[in-house]
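User: I'll paste a sequence; please echo it back and then give the predicted structure.

Assistant: Echoing your sequence first, then the prediction.
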Amino acid sequence: MPNPKKVETVKRLQEILKDVPYIFFADYKGMRVNELQTLKRQLREKGATFTVVKNTLTHIALSNLGMQDTKRFLKGPTAIIIAKDDPGSVLKAVLNFDKERNLPAVKGGIVEGRIVEENQIEALSKLPSREVLLAQLLGTLQAPTRGLVTVLSGTIRGLVVALNQIKEAKEKAS
């Protein structure tokens, strides 16, 4: 018979994780309390949380949500980093923290329902923020229109200049 407290923890964890697009797993072994608090504060500023839950309870919650392939990330002391948006800035913060202290090591994660391996984490951290990506997309979408307007206005400008020169030539001839 499962412990009611653990059943409640699994239910709460499922509620938290069910609609979260970005979940990362990190090994926090060797982190001191003050380092843990610093990292949590940095992640909170990015809209993310750093939570420690027993691996078995995390696995049960994720399995109930249809994410069975995460068991390999849940070995040893594992924290869950939950981000609702902009995974790049969250991972950047964790990796910068890792470079300074060699802690925590990100094991992998789930990005919009897909498993992300440890070797893909750094590539994700280098992605620009959502706002920058949207601005780049908008610039790319506007470029053909801007080019067309420039070409058309150049043609009209050329016609006006030619007509003006004809007018000036006629005025000189008179």
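The domain at 4-127 is CATH 3.30.70.1730 (Alpha-Beta Plaits). The longest strand covers residues 105-111.
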